[in-house]
Amino acid sequence: MASYALQVPSEYGYVLTVAASSLFVNTFHFLLTVKARNQSGLRYPIPYASQEQAEKDPKAYLFNCAQRAQANFIEHQPSFLTALLISGLWFPTASAALGAGWVFGRTWYAAGYTSSGPPGRTKGFYISFLCDTALKIMAVIAGVKLLPQA
């Protein structure tokens, strides 16, 4: 069995900076959700407004949108970070650029979803989806490049 000494590219700091910036997108979601909760009048521990509340009160509806946007972010951030950190080992500059695109797209997604409901998330979704898919493909390629050569 062969072993490898893993060297991190000098540009890997860009990758780590983008990874760290994604943590602030979660904080942005938190702030949007707190604002929407306060405006809706829904108190803790209520996680979502009921269907009836959301249909009657636009503020309750937007609170549900803020909650769902944050949940969606939390669902996607781990795979994004994994793809970013792996792909960055072989393609640090491209990974950092795509990662920055994902962070931008997810910020746009959050702002759009929380201000105008599901239709407002579309443009941010497409940006983040394309960047995320490219990072995942690059992560697989980076892994293959590190396989032992026969």
From TrEMBL:
Q: Where are the transmembrane segments?
A: 12-34, 80-104, 124-147
Q: Which GO terms describe its molecular function?
A: glutathione peroxidase activity; glutathione transferase activity
Membrane topology note: Multi-pass membrane protein
Any GO CC annotation of this UniProt entry: endoplasmic reticulum
State where it is primarily located: membrane
Q: Which InterPro entries match?
A: MAPEG (IPR050997), MAPEG-like_dom_sf (IPR023352), Membr-assoc_MAPEG (IPR001129)
SUPFAM superfamilies the record matches:
MAPEG domain-like
A Pfam family for this UniProt protein? MAPEG
Mind telling me what this protein is named? Microsomal glutathione S-transferase 3
* Annotated source species: Daldinia eschscholtzii
